[in-house]
Every structure is written in structure tokens, then in C-alpha cells.
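[INFO] parsing input record for F-box protein At3g59000-like
[DEBUG] input buffer:
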Amino acid sequence: MENNKHQKHHKGEGKNDSNIKLCDLPIDIHHKILSNLPTKEAIGTCVLSKSWLNKWKGINVIDLEESDEPNKRQQFVDFVEKLLVACNTSSLKKFSLLFEVGDETPRLNAWLAVFVNPMIEELSLKLDRVEEPLVLPQHFFTSETLTKFELSMQQVISLPPSTISFKNLVTLTLKNVIFPSNYYTARFFLGLPSLKEITLIDCNWKNAGYIIICCSSLQTVFIREWKDEEEDDENHNNEEEDHDDQNNHGKIAIYATKLLTFLYDGDMINDYSLIFTTMVTNATIEVHQHHNKKLCACYFMFKLFTALCNVAKLSLTYFAVEALGDQIQILNENLLSFNNLVEFRVVSYSSITNFSSQGLHIILQHSPILEEIEFDGGLVLDENGGDDINPLPACFETHVKIITIYGFQGSEEELNAIKFLLKIGQVLEIIYIFTYEFDFDYPGGPEKLEMLYEQMLGFPKASIDCEIALQ
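[DEBUG] output buffer:
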């Protein structure tokens, strides 16, 4: 009997221990929980009880996003104004704001003076229609706690004449930012000793001229810069405007001895150089055609190529590959071998990749241990196009095991390309062929695709065990 009572008492104690109430947790835990909620929901907890009335004021994360509905703009502004007064911003570690500024720049500057405290760790500002210079607090530019900074605005970034030092900034994202003069821009990039990742999207470098980004810790660079197509259509025939545009672009040299990943996606609006970047193992260069000239593309590509000789993964647009082919003699004389390249991808947008392309041929010739090749957007070869590929790239005899083709439509030129690859791939293990669903989505389409597959299975193969996988 005593044992039973003891057991019941013991169970009761366990039950009481497991029923700890939220209100019994330490205040620091409350703040951590509330900081992980959306800001408005965290503030909404003030109605739970009297004890919760002011707990939200200690949150260290604030995320503010203006509604797309114009009639709610004033409501958003009033909400932020009240938040400024009520919240303890001195403990804020992360602050993000999405706001269409318009004529509210003075008000925005006043907000930032309070929200961006000296201990801020992450700051994200996504701003539209910034009509006047944005002013960040002076202490922000010497922050020792900031680790992540994102700024999106089509306006000149206002930098102080005094010291700029982001001692612990690791991740930097700048979108649509207009850089000031060379002096201020250079000082900004000199103050990033711990930077590991930088993203530059549609930034304007014309005021900055020639800039050196020297970051010994930098590991990842992503650059995207697209021309305004409507504006470009109006101006590309005007030689004088083209000449002015060429003289006004920025020139950016990136010194990064620890750089591992480099990605460029754009229209060659600015001039980039990579210096002491021999550790790069993953590179993507998507240069687009539009109104760009192949000669300019060749110069642009060749400069980057000389700094990417140790890549293991490489992705290029077919326009970039073709541009390289236009200067075949220079490439043969100066291009180093890609002795570590094992994965190569070609992306086609406006035209399908031709396997007899001189640019493609020279890259394959300089890639002795290449194992995987991907043709995104299709692959073609004229009936006798293989005769122009001489000598054959050695990698097809010793290393190429996997070939992937996206966008197969069933043309004779595509079949020629597949037939030729099977003929030269002596260690080839598999060819993956992907079709777009709509290309064979018609009466008789699936039957035609099956017939094409049977035809491919009958092609002679240098590697007897090679599979053809039609997806």
C-alpha cells in the first residue's frame, strides 16, 4: 500500500514538473521567443494579459514591410512612428525595412537614426523611389558588430568623409546602388577586412571609375547587371551614345586570394578583372547577346578566363563560347589548360549550341580531365560537322562519362550531335536527354518521341555499355 502511494506521489511530482507555464520562463526566453515572431504578431501578444503588456518591447528583431495597398501607407507610417517611441531599440540586433520612400526621406533618416543602434548585427533596407540621399548614423560606418548588410535603392550611397570600418561584416548585398566618387567608393571597400560574400546587382559604377576591391577573406562573388532593354533598343544604333557609354562604365578589379566561387550574369556594362584568384573552383559567366558585340565579349571573357584556370565547375552561355571562338588564334596562344575542370555547362538562350563551335572546341581541348558536360538549351551538329572537329578533344577518349542535353526537339541536327557523341565517347557511361513537355504534346507526339528513342538506341557506340536515358 505504501509503495502504491509512493508511486502515485512520484507520478504527481513528474506531472507538475512538465507543466511549466510560459509565464514562468525567464524574461530573456520571452524576448527570444517574441523576436522569432513577425513584428506585428510579437506586438500583438500585449493583449494576452497585464504581465505581457510590455514584454514585446524587449524584442531584438524588427522586420517592417509596407503593404502594396496605397490606402494603407499612412497606417504603416503611423505604426512605425509609434514603434519608435514604445520599443527599446538599444537592444535591437536585426532590423529590416521594405518601404517606398517617395518624399519621406527625412522621416526615413529619422527612423534609421533610432533603429540602427551601435550594436546592430544585421541590417536590410529595401527601398523604392528614394528621391534624396539616404543618411545612415555616423556610428554605423565604424560598427564592430555588423555581420550582414543588404541595401537596395536606386540612389547614391552617402558615405562619410571620416573613417569607414566594418570590422566584422561577412555578407554584403548591394542592389541598384549608385556609387559616389572614386575616393569615397574606394574607402568603402577598403573597410571590409572580414568580408566573405558579396552580391552586386544592377549597381552603377560610373562615378567611381577604376576601383579595387581587395578582401583577403572573400570567398564568393555574385554580380548581376542587366541593361534596360527599352532604353537600349532606343540607343544602340546611336554611335555617339555608344561611345559615351563605353567611356563611362566602371572598371572593377577584384583581389581575392581565397575566392572560391565567382558568378557573373549580365550584359558587360562594366569591366571586371580577377587578380590572384587561382583558388576559384566554381565559376559561372552568363554573358548575354542583346546588342553586345562578340569582340567585346571575347575581351571580357578572356580576361576572366586567365584567372579561372583552376576551376572544377564552369558554366558559360553559348554567346560567350561563340565570342571566344571569334579570336581562336589568341586563345590558342594564351589560354591555359583547365587541368582541374570536371564539370562543364553551356547554356543556350537565343540559339542552340552547335557542337562544331570553335570556341566550344578550344575549351574542350584545354580540359583534359573533364567528366561531365551539360548542354542546357539543346545541342546540334550539321551532317558533316564532325569533320571540322580535328583533333578530337582528348577528354572524350579518357574521362567524359556523363553528358546531359536539355531541350531535345527531335531535329536531324540534334540526332547528328547525339550520334557523334556516342561515336567519340570511349568511356561514356550515359547520355541524359530531356525534352520539354510541350514539344511533343500533340496527337502522335509521344509516338514520334518513342520512334526517335529507338533510332538513337541503334546508333554505333564507342563505349558499349553507354546508356541513353530519355526523360
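[INFO] The two ends are 72 Å apart (CA to CA).
[INFO] shutting down worker
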